Amino acid sequence: MRVLSHRGHWLEQGEKNTLAAFERSFAGGFGTETDLRDVLGSIVISHDMPSGAEMTAAEFLALEGAAALPLALNIKADGQAVAVRDLIEKAGASQAFVFDMAVPDTLAYFAAGVPVYTRMSEVEQQPAWLSRSAGVWLDAFEGTWYDRDLVEKLLDSVSVCVVSPELHGRPHPETWELLAPLAGHPQLSICTDLPLHAATFFGVNP
User: Fold this and answer.
1) What molecular functions are annotated in GO for this chain (predicted)?
2) HSE of 197 in the Cβ direction (CA atoms, 13 Å)?
3) What is the end-to-end Cα distance of the chain in Å, rounded?
4) Which of 37, 92, 97, 100 could, after both became Cys, cross-link 115 (CB 3.0–4.6 A)?
């Protein structure tokens, strides 16, 4: 299992998607999830509507450690596929993948050769283009609807990144216990606000 920090390894809410959180995440050996939007012809790091003052995706990808660790790039706006591919290739970020783009926009990422994780949740139990995807972004908005058998079945054919429940304001222990027997699987990862806790719980080295 690999542990990915959600919007970086932040210690307080205001640090999400900031340089400090990203540097802390990479220094700790964690993979990192972050959000990409475009503004004035540039790709920037921003979960919400950007102002233009945000860190650029190029600056994020140039941080020490970024190229060597898993990067989950949450696509928040359409039409970025070629630009995102070029940024990933320039940075040599071989473990980067994209997810959460609109379904039609997904085709552009396939065409650009960017690894895609297709979304799967209680309202999307038939993920789009699973056979063409590098992985599954396994989410649960209102409660853990999947079981260990489903995770294992998915892992037979693709990588799986599980969204930890605290990202949706729910307790995480039940889901972590469900995943614990699979912690040794190299194609499994978890995106969490608690990366240090997760690394200790699952017994994995970041």
Assistant:
1) phosphoric diester hydrolase activity
2) 11
3) 9
4) 97
CB atoms within 10 A of CB 15: 16
CATH number of the domain encompassing residue 193: 3.20.20.190
pTM listed for this prediction: 0.97
Q: Which domain holds residue 166?
A: 2-202
**Looking at the 3D structure of the chain, how many domains does it have?**
1
| Identity of residue 95 | Q
Tokens of 78: 């359409």
Contact by Cβ (8 Å): 79, 109: no
Residue 70 DSSP one-character state: -
Q: Which of 175, 186, 182 is nearest to 194 (CA)?
A: 175
Per-residue model confidence as pLDDT tens digits over 64-101: 999 999 999 999 999 999 999 999 999 999 999 999 99
Rounded to whole angstroms, the Cα distance separating 197 from 202 reads 9
Please give the single-letter amino acid code of residue 172: H
CA gap 151, 48 in Å, rounded = 31
